[in-house]
């Protein structure tokens, strides 16, 4: 029998080792790395502060004034603009429009984008051409798309009217004069334009997924729905998270299509969303202080939504 | 409370940055300190125009003539927007950010806010300083830009509303070849016109509220004795105004009326029997598939029921005196008798100079094109617009929104009462504190 190995007592932690040469930093990184990081980060941070955070602070400051956009001076009026916005009957419609538009565009474009990506991830003839066709509208300017779709939805000569009349024998509503249909019109146009974005991101995610998991599930006899919901979707969760934030922020920003197609109408606020109300109050009604107030409210709403999204997603990832 | 992970923190920070980018889109210019430094070159006159009435070619022709007559000066014609509102937005951006134009097109609705906030030069004084005369401008059109004894623009693309009608449809309906003398007479004609023009088309086409219904409806309102306001006091709940709005709603309910974002195109395509629109559209009505009739706006009892409209040209107060003097010379040239004739013949806008009518080319043109002469003959029947539309910031847009609701069937009295409140609020917050008297 061999003797057990001798166990030596641990060295007493009586203090730091005797200094030898230059002491290392607490983080263990040499100064050179810190300097390099600072050199790389500072230009972007500077731009961010100058062109994003400074205007944000400026905007919040203006939201407490009665600034007429043409005026050289602005008067401090406290929270009057905020009180006015919450008491304005149109604000509720604007919020509702924003909610409907955002939920519809985020939900539909992500669902359709995923469906198309799954379809065109298969080996199909001509799939590259179709992929390009789906992505192409995304790179066209919103104003151009809005202009083109004005003709598509034209109640007198439009393509939709013609198709409905020819194949279904029904008349179409006047998309330009009925608020509900006008909102459908701008929402549809926006989805058509931006579908390529969700499609491409999902396609890239699909091509990077672990196909062996799907094959294993198939061998185990899992149904198509279970393979989709239990194998594929969890793998796409980071992509879905990324898309949900970026598509939401892009949807809330929509301006060009609404401005070209409806100018926020019909009947005043039929398709006015929060960002369009900012424009309308600032540049049409000249109430730049009030416009800044709405922009600040929008910022706070988006901040809350983003924090909630991050937390929900974080919890999902960790679980 | 759980801690945010690093990824979570970065996500929130990124979201905040994006969201703040959105939030920052409203008025990031320092409005409290900007005095419109100007920028620009003294020898180059930057002319900001939306080319009203598709007048770009005419403007370029006039500019070429000016540069020939003034070799030391150059004129840069800048596309400043597709309509008057976009030009005003661009000018507002320049007021906050600098790089002001030398001459800018300002509409009947946009000039006053700039004048009220001391952003426009007194062109009357500038003309006088440079030995230029303003006496030849049509008095009413020149007076439209007066505030506190100063003139803040020179009339340029000035228009009135005229009554356009499809003669073929009128003939088919068995109606006389003329405009009706009152809107009540039109209401009597409407069923015949509707029957003659057929389903899917309409007896009357007007702009919708997002465009210029607030302007054209003013003529209908005046013909019933109503008004948007009596000076600064809104009168949308006046019984005569309510009557006019009720008539408008009645046409819509009976399907005689269609409001449109592009009423002139719809009318030109034969979708309406009657169009109430600017004289500035006349230049575009050249190859219609039907015979065009042009008449006076219905004005029973000879009352003045036709509003003026269109735009003038203004000179910013924030540019150097040298640039202002050059700009004044250009403005005078742009609107001299000969160029007024050139411009009106290209567009259909009214001559803004009295002597322009004596120009041989103009006289011959009006004789050969009697439709163009209607606006000139109607000029004595015009009157300045109500303050609520043209002087209250956002007034025109608010009126248009209310009229859209009325056309769609909203309660007339309640809608007009709410409009009264909107206009009063805008006046009290944005105009009243700045009025000097």
TrEMBL record, chain B:
Keywords: Signal. It comes from the Bacteria. CDD domains: PBP2_UgpB. It comes from Metallococcus carri. Pfam families: SBP_bac_8. This is ABC transporter substrate-binding protein. The keyword Lipid biosynthesis does not apply. Residues 1-26 form the signal peptide. The keyword Repeat does not apply.
């Amino acid at each position: 029998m061999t003797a057990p190995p001798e166990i030596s007592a641990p060295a007493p932690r009586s203090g730091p080792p005797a200094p030898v040469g230059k002491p290392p930093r607490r983080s263990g990184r040499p100064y050179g790395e810190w300097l390099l990081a600072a050199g790389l980060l500072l230009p972007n941070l500077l731009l961010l502060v100058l062109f994003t955070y400074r205007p944000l602070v400026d905007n919040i400051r203006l939201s407490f004034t009665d600034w007429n956009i043409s005026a050289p001076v602005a008067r401090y009026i406290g929270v009057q603009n905020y009180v006015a916005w919450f008491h304005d009957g149109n604000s509720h419609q604007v919020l509702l429009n924003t909610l409907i538009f955002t939920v519809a565009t985020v939900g539909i474009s992500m669902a359709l984008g995923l469906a198309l990506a799954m379809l065109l991830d298969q080996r199909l003839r001509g799939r590259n051409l179709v992929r390009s066709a789906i992505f192409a509208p995304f790179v066209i300017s919103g104003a151009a798309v809005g202009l083109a779709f004005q003709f598509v939805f034209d109640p007198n000569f439009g393509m939709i009217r013609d198709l409905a009349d020819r194949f279904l024998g029904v008349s179409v509503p006047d998309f330009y004069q009925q608020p509900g249909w006008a909102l459908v019109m701008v929402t549809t146009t926006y989805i058509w334009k931006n579908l390529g974005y969700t499609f491409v991101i999902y396609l890239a995610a699909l091509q990077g997924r672990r196909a062996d998991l799907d094959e294993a599930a198939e061998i185990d006899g899992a149904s198509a729905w279970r393979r989709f919901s239990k194998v594929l979707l969890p793998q796409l969760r980071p992509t879905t998270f990324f898309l949900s934030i970026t598509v939401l922020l892009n949807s809330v920003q929509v301006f060009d299509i609404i401005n070209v197609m409806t100018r926020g109408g019909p009947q005043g606020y039929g398709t006015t969303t929060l960002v369009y109300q900012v424009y309308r109050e600032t540049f049409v009604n000249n109430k730049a202080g009030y416009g800044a107030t709405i922009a600040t409210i929008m910022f706070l709403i988006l901040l809350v939504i983003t924090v909630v999204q991050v937390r929900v997603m974080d919890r999902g990832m960790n679980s | 409370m759980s801690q945010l992970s690093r990824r979570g923190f970065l996500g929130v920070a990124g979201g905040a940055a994006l969201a703040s980018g959105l939030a920052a889109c409203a008025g990031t210019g320092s409005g409290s300190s900007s005095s419109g430094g100007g920028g620009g070159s003294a020898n180059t006159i930057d002319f900001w125009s939306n080319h009203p009435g598709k007048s770009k070619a005419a403007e370029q022709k006039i500019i070429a003539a000016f540069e020939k007559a003034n070799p030391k000066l150059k004129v840069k014609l800048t596309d400043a927007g597709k309509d008057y509102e976009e030009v005003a937005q661009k000018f507002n951006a320049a007021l906050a950010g600098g790089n002001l134009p030398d001459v800018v097109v300002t509409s009947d609705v946009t000039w006053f806010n700039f004048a009220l906030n001391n952003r426009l030069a007194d062109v009357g004084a500038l003309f006088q300083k440079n030995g230029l005369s303003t006496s030849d401008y049509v008095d009413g059109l020149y007076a439209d830009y007066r505030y506190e004894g100063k003139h803040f623009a020179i009339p340029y693309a000035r228009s009135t509303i005229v009554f356009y009608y499809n003669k073929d449809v009128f003939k088919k309906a068995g109606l006389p070849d003329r405009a009706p003398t009152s809107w009540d007479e039109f209401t009597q004609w409407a069923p015949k016109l509707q029957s003659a023009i057929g389903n899917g088309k309409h007896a009357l086409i007007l702009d919708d509220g997002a465009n210029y219904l607030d302007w054209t409806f003013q003529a209908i309102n005046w013909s019933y004795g109503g008004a948007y306001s009596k000076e600064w006091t809104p009168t949308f709940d006046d019984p005569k105004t309510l009557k006019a709005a009720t008539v408008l709603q009645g046409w819509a309910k009976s399907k005689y009326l269609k409001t449109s974002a592009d009423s002139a195109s719809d009318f030109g395509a034969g979708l309406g029997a009657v169009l109430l629109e600017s004289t500035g559209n006349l230049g575009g009505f050249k190859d219609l598939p039907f015979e065009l009739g042009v008449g006076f706006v219905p004005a029973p009892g000879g009352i003045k029921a036709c509003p003026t409209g269109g735009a003038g040209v203004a000179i910013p107060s924030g540019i150097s005196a040298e640039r202002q003097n050059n700009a004044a010379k250009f403005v005078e040239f742009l609107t001299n008798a000969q160029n007024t004739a050139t411009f009106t013949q290209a567009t259909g806008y009214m001559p803004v100079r009295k002597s322009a009518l004596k120009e041989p080319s103009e006289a011959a043109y009006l004789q050969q094109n009697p439709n163009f002469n209607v606006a000139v003959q109607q000029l004595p029947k015009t009157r300045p617009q109500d303050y609520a539309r043209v002087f209250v910031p956002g007034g025109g847009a608010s009126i248009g929104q209310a009229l859209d609701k009325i056309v769609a069937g909203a309660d007339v009295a309640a809608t007009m009462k709410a409009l009264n409140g909107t206009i009063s609020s805008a006046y009290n917050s944005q105009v009243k504190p700045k009025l000097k008297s």
